[in-house]
From TrEMBL:
Species of origin: Mesorhizobium jarvisii
Protein name as catalogued: Transcriptional regulator
InterPro entries named in the record: Class_I_gatase-like, DJ-1/PfpI, INH-QAR
């Protein structure tokens, strides 16, 4: 079963499960057991920071790249928002082609530039290239560009299933890496030269970094900020995000395809009469990280999809300068179909609230189902 079908097409996962049959469902574990992971020792933490030091510029240039019609929402917007608010690097949001980007499973944006325009302005390349998950792991333009940036000395950071894109470029061969729990098997099968590392939210090896699920880009970006500007700066940004502690520690074993996960996907997708569109008003200065996390979470329930709306079709500029395009033109939305307003706009708290609101609306199993997709340690 393809990860993108599972995460982005409820009907697709239902059809696949029905085809596999009840015996497959019964073979799934009833639950996953959490285990306490040891702290990251000082030697490993220091080695990670040393490996993430800016390779070229004192004030690094960071490029976040995606395809126009299938780049994962939070993988793309979370690094952008966190790094922009830190103000320790010049950060640009890139697309392969001109025009807007339709992110998945929610939101559409106007990127800063195309990869061609970036190359023309910066022939010596970026210091860091951030690669989100994409609908296609074999997009020829993306793969060629990533390889060219690595050849110019950029460190490449694969976010979540973006590791599959980096793997397809050949940059992970012979290196240690991780990825979203659902993509581990596929990554190892397609690229047997990669050395998978469990129980780490992010792994850095020889100029390439990879992370686990979608929410892992938060600790990954904070660690990158620490490597660039020091611990005090990273802690200040962490407080701004609502995240008091972070490191590479992770319990990989708790994230797996379980029977409740499959049954929730089937039940929610089949409840077609209860499917709904929930509105999020777009306002100037919106926190793009919180917006991405909340819209992403609500769009993964298999019961609801989040759409943004505004009074006109012009781009709304976010807190840190991203241009977000509304999905619909409207001055209001039915109150009972609005995504609940964020009581605490700090991104980590906004996600926790979204999961609580999802539980209240669709049940605790659906909130767990969403958290599992996000690979979010709750």
């Amino acid at each position: 079963m393809n990860l993108r079908i599972m995460l982005w097409s409820g009907l697709g996962v239902v059809a696949a499960v029905l085809a596999l049959g009840a015996a497959w469902l019964l073979s799934l574990p009833a639950a996953s057991q959490a285990a306490v992971q040891p702290a990251i020792d000082a030697k490993e933490a220091a080695a990670t920071l040393a490996a993430l030091k800016p390779p070229k510029r004192q004030r690094p240039l960071i490029a976040i790249v995606g395809i126009n019609d299938g780049t994962e929402t939070t993988d793309y917007l979370m690094p952008y928002g966190i790094l922009r608010r830190a103000d320790v690097a010049d950060v640009v949001a890139l697309a392969t082609q001109p025009g807007p980007m339709r992110l998945h499973p929610a939101l559409q944006i106007e990127p800063d530039a195309t990869i061609a325009a970036f190359d023309a302005e910066h022939p010596d390349g970026a210091d860091y290239v951030i690669v989100p998950a994409m609908m296609r792991d074999d997009d020829a333009e993306v793969l060629k560009w990533i390889k060219s940036q690595a050849a110019k000395g950029a460190m490449v950071i694969g976010i979540c299933a973006g590791a599959k894109v980096v793997g397809a470029s050949g940059l992970l061969d012979g290196k240690r890496a991780t990825t979203h729990w659902y993509s581990v098997g596929e990554l190892r099968e397609k690229h047997p030269a990669i050395h998978y590392v469990a129980d780490r939210r992010f792994v850095v090896d020889q100029g390439v970094a990879t992370t686990t699920g979608i929410t892992a880009s938060m600790p990954m970006m904070l660690t990158l900020i620490e490597a660039i500007a020091g611990r005090d700066k990273a802690e200040a940004v962490g407080r701004d995000l609502g995240l008091a502690h972070w490191d590479a520690r992770h319990d990989s074993g708790v994230f797996k395809f379980t029977r409740p996960f499959a049954l929730t996907a089937i039940g929610n997708a089949l409840a077609v009469l209860d499917h709904e569109q929930l509105g999020i008003p777009l306002t100037s200065g919106v926190d793009e990280v919180s917006l991405a996390l909340v819209a992403d979470a609500w769009s993964r329930t298999f019961r609801s999809g989040a759409v943004t709306f505004a009074g006109n079709d012009g781009a709304i500029v976010s807190r840190d300068g991203l241009r977000i395009l509304p999905d619909q033109i409207a001055t209001g939305w039915p109150v009972d179909r609005l995504v609940p307003a964020m009581a605490d706009p700090r991104p980590a708290r906004a996600l926790d609230q979204a999961l609580q609101d999802i539980s209240a609306r669709h049940g605790a199993r659906t909130a767990d189902f969403v958290a599992m997709q996000l690979e979010y340690p709750r």
